[in-house]
Every structure is written in C-alpha cells, then in structure tokens.
Design the sequence.
C-alpha cells in the first residue's frame, strides 16, 4: 500500500538530533520511574515511516516528554502494556494493523491512554469515526509542530485527570471499605449465623446496642447473599420525619398529595432485586407498620396514589430497642415483629469481646492515618491496656471516634496514654458518673451536644431512653449528632 504521507517539512528541520529512543533503542527504565513522576509525560509514537518517527521523537524529546517509539501496532501495544503511557500518537494508515485497530486494542490494554491520530489528506473521514471510538484528537499531515505538541499536551492532561480520578476513587473505596474486624468467639458466632442466613430470602433482624456494628452486619448479609450485585439501600426510619416516611419508602405519583409535584420513586423501588435495610425499625409509626407488614406478607405494595407493585426486595431490619417489650407495651405490632424476626442476630457489645479491641485499634489507626495523610501511629502497650480495659458504652463507634481524634491530634508515631481522652486514660473510676460540668461561656449548642453524648453513655447508647431522659425526640438526637439519614435524592 502506498503511504500517502509527505514527510512533514515543518518537522524535518530538527532531525539532526539523536532521538530519545526507538523500537530497538528504547531505554525502558523500571516501571516505577516511567510511571512515577506525576508531572512527567510519556508519549508513544507509532509510524511505519522511519523518518517521520524520528522527527516526532525529536520534537517530543525537546518538549521534555519521555518518548517511546514503535514502527507498528504490535510493538506499541507491548510498550503500553509495560509502561504507563499518557498519549499514543499513531499514524492512521499503516501496513498490517491500522491506527484504528490499534486504538481499539489499546482501549483493552491501557484504557486511560489517550490516542492522537495522524491522518493524511483524504482520510479525515476515517479519523472522525476514530474520534467516535474514543480517539482524543487527530492532526492532519503534513504535521505542524505547534499543533501536534498542543494536541499531545491536551491529551496528556486529560489522561492525567482520568488517572487521578481513578486513584482517588480507589482511595475512597479503600477508606470506606467496611470490613468486619474481629476474631473473638462472640463475633464469630454472629458472623456464622449471618453467613448461613445470607443466601436465603429470610428477613433478618439485627439487634444490639448503639455502635456495635448493626449496619455493618446488615451489609455483610447483603454481600453474602445472591443479591450482592444488586443495590443495598439503607433507610434510617428514625431520622426521616414521620410525615414523609411512607412516601420515602413506597414512593408517590405526581399530584398524589399537596406538594407531590413530580412522581417519586421510593426506597423499595430503588432496592428492587437487592436488599432494603430498615434501620431503627422500632421508630416506625403504626401506619407505616401496617404497610410494611403487607409487603412482607403479600410481596407487594402501593406507591401513594399509584397502582400495586410487586416487590422483589430482601428486608434486613435493625434496632437497639427491645422490640419484644415494645410489642408488650403496644407500640409495635406483634404480627410485624414475628415477620421481621425470622432470623435474628445480636451484635455483641465491645466490652463482651475485649480481645477484638487491639485489632480494631490497629484497623482504625490505619484508616485514619491514611485518610489524614499522616505516618502510621501505633499505641504504646500502656495505652493499649487502657483501651482494652475501658468499658466502651458507645461500642465500636466510640472506639473509632477516639482513634480518629488521636490521629488528628497526633504529633508522633506513638499513641501514648496522654493522647487518650481523660475518661479512658484515667479509667472511668475517677470521673464522677452522671455529672456534667461546663466552663462559663460554653455555647448552648455545645452544652446540648455534650448533654446528649453523656446521656447516651449512661444509657449505653440507647437513644430512645436518652431521648426520654432529656425530654427531646429521638429525631432531635439524630439531628444534633449529625447522624441523620437525609431523605433521598
Ligand atoms: N467489627 C467491626 N469492624 C470494623 N468496623 C466496625 C465494626 N463494628 C462497627 N464498626 C464501625 O463502627 C461504626 C458503627 O457501626 P454501625 O453503624 O454498623 O453500628 P450500629 O450498630 O448500626 O450503630 P447505631 O445503633 O448507632 O446505628 C461504623 O463506622 C462501622 O464501620
Ligand atoms: Mg446503625
């Protein structure tokens, strides 16, 4: 096939310099160097025309880019597999594999690498279709030095943004990856039951004090079920105002009530095929209890103002209330309780599995050091002993908060007794129980927050009891603690 390329006169002039590398001579340093420096731009030029290749090497070399070159697609792919190449600049028409085919193969091998095509007169149409397949840009031959450099610079910055975005996503994924840490027999027993229950459609009721990991257990059940690839939708029944909870769960049609200006999908619909986690189930109003019972019994429900919908949703519910007592006292429907309580698992309080404390300490120190970009902090034996001895009324959540605080305030790689909150450092014995004191000038907001936290400690995390003692609603507690589950999007 005749090559319809005129050697780019504009480029020719600079051919006197030795290229940085070519098919045979590429220095190919260790991956760490090639991929490392964030600012460095690596370009792979592909052309079967040797003189064109050399000109490009020179141009990009002068721009300070690291340059690899290949006379064909096969070698280009090899190079991209081996090194992190930001931009591939390829001729469109080449004997054997064309630039377009290279583009397609590259999307498999190195999807983030950007491709700039060099096209000869008369092949612009092909270049346009290549753009549709994901090429970043095309430049026409004969090449203009300025335009090819500009195009490659743009492509490189685009590629770097993509890579940065992916790296950040991975970091978030790593930080938010909620694995259940602990090897204590008490925790293992719970995980065994959860694992057995997971593959079935049985409703699971997760019980346990506040902060023991009930939500984590609910996610565990979902992840070990056949629905793992489908959505896991969590609803905090206590945090959503009673008046809108029904609409939030079941959805509504447009105009079904004042203010329903548009149709809205409920959480049941969002969880279709997956798992719906109903947190703080003890807070459901009688009206919503009836509707939920119907879904559990009949497998169907009606969005407000809408027609009956079949529900293919697995329910996992959680509460830190004593639901049996709620039933006895007439606040929770007995029939609903039995429907929910098909399999129940109780997350053990942390004080009942102290052997997990060192593992959790290590886990959270790792998470928060990474999150705060701090060097790894480790506890001294004395500090660890206090942490193990402490009673943890707020359970794992409290331990997590203590570790986050310690990392944020840390000035050395060691977490000592002095770095712990006073109640833990001194042992609870020294702190007067049930007494709060504030410095004059403390804001009402702060006083409220301390009052809520201290009361929760006394009630061992029982928010309903704390609300009663404080004379406020449980919703107010959630709001003040900032643990609300904002009503959906
Ligand atoms: N075994 C565990 N391993 C790692 N992290 C845990 C563990 N248990 C709980 N956590 C963490 O502690 C925090 C509280 O857990 P979670 O929200 O599941 O508790 P909860 O029982 O639902 O609390 P609440 O009753 O207050 O809603 C979360 O950040 C969770 O990731
Ligand atoms: Mg919870």
Sequence:
């Amino acid at each position: 096939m005749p090559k319809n390329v005129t050697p780019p006169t504009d480029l020719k002039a600079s051919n006197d310099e030795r290229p940085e590398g070519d098919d045979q001579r590429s220095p190919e340093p260790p991956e760490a160097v090639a991929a490392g420096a964030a600012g460095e731009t690596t370009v792979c030029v592909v052309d079967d025309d040797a003189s064109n290749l050399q000109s490009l090497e020179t141009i990009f070399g002068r721009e300070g880019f690291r340059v690899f070159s290949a006379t064909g697609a096969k070698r280009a792919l090899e190079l991209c597999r081996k090194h992190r190449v930001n931009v591939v600049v390829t001729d469109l028409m080449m004997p054997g594999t064309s630039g377009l085919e290279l583009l397609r193969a590259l999307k498999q091998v190195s999807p983030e690498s950007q491709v700039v095509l060099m096209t000869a007169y008369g092949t612009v149409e092909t270049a346009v279709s290549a753009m549709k397949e994901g090429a970043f840009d095309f430049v026409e031959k004969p090449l203009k030095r300025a335009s090819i450099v500009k195009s490659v610079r743009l492509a490189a910055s685009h590629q770097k943004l993509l890579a940065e975005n992916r790296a950040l996503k991975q970091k978030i994924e790593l930080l938010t990856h909620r694995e259940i840490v602990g090897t204590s027999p008490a925790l293992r027993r719970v995980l065994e039951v959860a694992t057995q229950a997971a593959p079935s459609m049985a409703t699971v009721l997760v019980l346990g004090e506040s902060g023991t990991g009930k939500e984590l257990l609910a996610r565990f059940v979902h992840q070990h079920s056949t629905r793992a690839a489908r959505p896991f939708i969590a609803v905090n029944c206590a945090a959503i105002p009673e008046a809108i909870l029904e609409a939030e769960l079941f959805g509504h049609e447009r105009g079904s009530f004042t203010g329903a200006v548009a149709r809205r999908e409920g959480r049941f619909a969002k969880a279709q095929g997956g798992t719906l986690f109903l947190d703080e189930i003890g807070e459901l109003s009688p009206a919503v209890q009836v509707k939920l019972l119907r879904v559990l019994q009949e497998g169907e429900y009606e969005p407000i103002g809408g027609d009956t919908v079949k529900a293919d949703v697995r329910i996992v519910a959680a509460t830190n209330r004593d639901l049996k007592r709620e039933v006895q006292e007439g606040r929770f429907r007995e029939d609903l309780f039995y429907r929910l309580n098909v399999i129940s698992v109780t997350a053990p309080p942390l004080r009942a599995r102290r052997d997990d404390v060192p593992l959790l300490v290590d886990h959270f120190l790792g998470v928060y050091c990474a999150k705060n970009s701090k060097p790894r902090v480790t506890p001294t034996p004395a500090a660890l002993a206090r942490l193990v001895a402490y009673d943890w009324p707020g359970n794992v959540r409290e331990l997590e908060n203590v570790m986050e605080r310690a990392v944020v305030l840390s000035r050395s790689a060691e977490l000592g007794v002095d770095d712990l909150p006073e109640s833990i450092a001194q042992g609870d014995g020294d702190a007067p129980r049930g007494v709060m004191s504030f410095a004059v000038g403390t804001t009402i907001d702060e006083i409220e927050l301390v009052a809520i936290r201290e009361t929760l400690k006394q009630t061992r995390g029982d928010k309903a009891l704390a609300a009663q003692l404080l004379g406020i609603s449980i919703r107010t507690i959630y709001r003040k603690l900032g643990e609300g589950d904002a009503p959906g999007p």
Remarks:
- The first helix runs from residue 9 to 12.
- Residues 185-348 form a domain with the Rossmann fold fold (CATH 3.40.50.300).
